[in-house]
Specification:
The protein is of the alpha+beta class. The protein contains five helices and five strands. The model has no long low-confidence stretch (mean pLDDT 95).
Length: 172
């Protein structure tokens, strides 16, 4: 689907290159690719050349908490905006680095660290209001050829759409 203001975007939405990442918050390869994307954004995002769009692709078969984490990130985004969303990802990855699972009992505390009210976050999570969004993004990832995570799509200003699967290193 087209990138819109409803997406979680880091960088200039009118950048020459947009990288859409379909990701699983518990996936070790996604955590590794997150570091690569941070490096890309540090080098090219500051000047508006690259934008990073984050969408959900929770692989429940191997990461049972991934859908709940995806929903949690959406609740944080609702309560803390785009900056809160990205801060939440950083907090999750800090608490559960590569090859470790996120301690789900720390979900509310992690949302608070990302800058939102714990009680408002708990209310949002209890509502289940983001389950459909997470499922829709999962289905979008499949429709665009996603077979694993991270599944990335590079979109150029010229209109090129280039799939890029896996946790590619910075050099790639």
């Amino acid at each position: 689907p087209e990138v819109t203001q409803a997406d979680h975007i880091l960088g200039n939405p009118d950048a020459d290159i947009i990288i859409v990442e379909y990701s699983d918050i518990e996936c070790p390869f996604c955590k590794q690719f997150h570091i690569t994307m941070q490096q890309i954004m540090n080098e090219y995002g500051q000047g508006g050349k690259v934008a990073w769009v984050y969408r959900h692709f929770p692989l429940t078969q191997i990461h049972p908490n991934a859908p709940r984490l995806a929903e949690a990130s959406e609740c944080v985004a609702e309560l803390g905006g785009n900056a809160g969303f990205w801060k939440f990802l950083e907090e999750v990855f800090a608490l559960a680095p590569i090859n470790t699972f996120f301690p789900i009992d720390q979900l509310t505390a992690t949302a608070v660290k990302a800058g939102v009210s714990g009680s408002a976050f708990d209310t949002c999570m209890a509502s289940g209001k983001y389950q459909d969004l997470v499922e829709a993004q999962f289905n979008d990832a499949i429709e665009t050829g996603g077979q694993g995570t991270p599944h990335n799509i590079i979109i150029t200003k010229k209109g090129d759409i280039i799939p890029l699967s896996g946790a590619q290193p910075y050099a790639t």
